[in-house]
Amino acid sequence: MTSNIPADLIQIVMTTLTVGCMYALVAVGVALIYSATGVINFAQGEFVMLGGMTVASLYGQHDWPLAAAIAVALVVALIYSAVLMLLTTAFAARMSLIGVLIITIGASIATQGVAAWIWDSDTHRFAPFSGDEPFRILDATITPQALWIIGIGGVSIMLLLWFIRSTMMGKAMRACALDRAAATMVGIPVRWTILMSFVLSGMLCAVGGIVTTPLTTIDANGGMLLAIKGFSAAMLGGMGNIGGALLGALLIAFVETLAVTFSSSAFKELPTFTIIILVLLFMPRGLLGRRGETGLHHEDLTQR
Amino acid sequence: MKTSLSDNLAAAGPASAASSASSPFNRELRRHTLSAGAFLAVMLLVPAVFGTGYYLNTLNFVALLALPTLGLSLLSGLSGQLAISHGAFFALGAYGSAILSTNLGITPLLSTVLAQVIVVLIAAAIGSVVLRLRSHYLAIATLSFAIIVELLIEEARSLTGGMQGMLGIPPIDVGFMELTSDLEIYLLYWPITIVMLWFALNISSSGVGRVLRAVREGEPVLGSLGIHAPRYKIGIYILSSIYAGVGGSLYAHFVGFVTPATGSIMFAIEIIMVLALGGFDRLWGALVGAALMTLLNEYALGFADFKRIILGVGLIVIMLVFPRGLLPGLIDTARHWFARRAG
Predict the structure, then answer these.
(1) 75-94 in A: which are within 8 Å (CB) of B?
(2) What is B180-228 written as a DSSP string?
(3) How does pLDDT run across A233-260, given as a tens digit for each residue?
């Protein structure tokens, strides 16, 4: 490694932002579903995988136009999010949260299996949106795709925040998250609102998968680790808190970038998971979690 | 079967340790000893009646898969919590005993015991941290731990052989002979599994089991009764990890090699599947689930992608149709059906 400190700093900041954007999309997706239903969706990473793989196959291999491939990928994510919503909330209405957790684990590995069956288990990528040619700032090399990731990721999250804060539907989602029974009583269609949370969450992650695949590649098994990163980030920030999810994602990305820069990439996961366990130990509500929140419901695997 | 909170707590306190000879626990103990003893006798008669054959190899895998499942069943069936770390402890037991016996030349029986010491130390360290968490949080924290173990196994090449794994792990040596044939392994492993089942049954009906069921029903009440619930939870977590660790060590000395797949997330999910097949709160069900899973592995699921689809869809369907597990669900359904036919 050179001793060019400004260039290193730029590189670290850029990598943190790029990786952080991906994690943030997953983490916000996890937080959306969690606040709507109390469920942690293990299959969250499969949205990313399906988004990336669909575009890689249609645009990368079958030469479809990029826009059409992206549209199909978003439709796939839409259908998948509706299926997940049915499996975890509608069909499993009287089930314990851990039972639902097991259902999402099942959905995750079944999706991996189906994806490996439709495509294969190799890594896939497709051409970046605006060329492969990196440009340099003070000896730091930056790929154009990294800017696409940061741009599209940032805009998507901004749009989501605007939607939740300022539209009627978003307000209904927040009402459902606060108190489902009360939301029903004032006439909010709770089912549709929950479906909306799943769909938004799925779209967000599929967009993440589509923009990052040219840079990071994707394979049929790649979703689960991303999902784990996503809910680690969401927990780190404070479960169900979107701002916290963003902060957690950037922190995890920063730690990983440092680990890759200063030691071997093989051990980049270790500091991350160690930090998560430590945060859970000392700050169980996360960095931005509300103090008054008791958080966890009474749960039981063996009870109907 | 379902007892109320007050029943659960009635004998949960320290007083239960000094129970008299005719206490409910002693009656249960006698019942468990009889049923486990009868089952052991049947299992020992099997090779005498049917002779040796490939089926013994399959049965050995059933005994091995039953051990981590019994462990997870103790944790989830009693306290209602789900840990995804049992694959990791299985791998720690397997690699621990493999390294001790291959690199240091310790006899496999001793290395199996020493590996459990490692498992206990790690489970105590991890358990005292993660068992402050509940439900989802516990599942994710134990999953994080499982990923760390998997990565460490893959990266510590000088010790574990990396992705290639370890070959040439010596078979168990009982002093006068090495156990190499399926029959010899069978005659050692099935008694071990059944003794551990017997122990788990007794834990379940002891005061400890009642405290843990009370944790499931409502943990805060326990504190007001002077019972320190976290200690029991950490205790059962360590115990259930030992089940997984013993399974792993015995597995390594049976098949003679270990690879990182031994401790993969897929295996952890497979253990959850075995539990779902046999029922989340049925210790005997762990054996049935292990038998079903081994048969599936042996005859239906050679192709890995296919296996993932079956496991995933199977988990979803079982959870949706029979939330307590396939076996208890089928038993309940059959009972309802017969009750209706009887009028």
Answers:
(1) 87, 91-92
(2) -SHHHHHHHHHHHHHHHHHHHHHHHHSHHHHHHHHHHHHHHHHHHTT--
(3) 888 887 777 888 888 899 999 988 888 8
**In B52-69, which positions are buried (b, 16+ CB within 10 angstroms) versus exposed (e)?**
eeeebbbbbbbbbbbbbb
Rounded distance between C-alpha atoms, residue A249 and residue B34, angstroms: 55
Per-residue pLDDT band for B134 (boundaries 50, 70, 90) equals low
Concatenated DSSP letters of A95-132: S-HHHHHHHHHHHHHHHHHHHHHHS-SS-B----TT-S
CA distance A97 to A78: 24
Q: What is the DSSP letter of B263?
A: G
Contact B132, B223 (CB under 8 A): no
For residue A13, what are its two tokens? 């900041």
- Per the CB < 8 A criterion, the answer to whether B77 and B282 are in contact is yes
pTM (two decimals): 0.85
Cα–Cα dist B154/B160, whole Å? 7
Task: Provide the shortest C-alpha distance from residue A129 to chain B (in Å).
Answer: 32
A117: left (phi over 0), alpha (psi -120 to 50) or beta: alpha
- From B2's Cα to the closest Cα of chain A, the distance in A is 10
DSSP H or E stretch at residue A141: strand A140-142
d(CA A261, CA B253): 40
Per DSSP, helices labelled H in chain A are 5-37, 44-55, 66-85, 97-118, 144-166, 168-178, 180-185, 190-216, 223-237, 242-262, 269-282
Q: Are A277 and B129 inside 8 Å of each other by CB?
A: yes
Query: Which residues, 6 or more positions from A281, have their beta carbon under 8 angstroms from its beta carbon?
Result: B129, B132
Residues 157-216 of B with CB under 8 A from A: 216
On whether the CB atoms of residues B233 and B133 are closer than 8 A, the answer is no
Cβ pair B215, B229 in contact under 8 A: yes
3-state secondary structure of B108: helix
Handedness of CA A301, A304, B6, B8 (dihedral sign): negative
Residues 6 or more apart in contact with residue B113 via CB below 8 angstroms: none
8 A C-beta contact, residue A245 and residue A233: yes
Give kind and range of the element (H or E) at residue B154: helix B135-155
Of A91, A276, A277, the CB nearest to B320: A91
Q: What is the ipTM of this complex?
A: 0.83
> A225: closest CA among B143, B163, B155?
B143
**Tens digits of per-residue pLDDT, A94-141?**
777 788 888 999 999 999 989 988 888 788 888 888 777 777 777 777
Is residue B318 within 8 A of residue B275, CB to CB? The reply is no
CB contacts under 8 A, B 60-99 vs A, are: 76-77, 80-82
* Minimum distance, in Å, between the CA of residue B283 and any CA atom of chain A: 13
Judging contacts by C-beta atoms under 8 Å, the chain B residues touching residue A297 are: 135
Contact across the interface for A273 and B144, Cβ inside 8 Å: yes
Using the beta-carbon criterion (under 8 Å), do B316 and A110 form an inter-chain contact?
Answer: yes
Q: How many residues does chain A have?
A: 304
Which residue type does B251 have?
A: Y
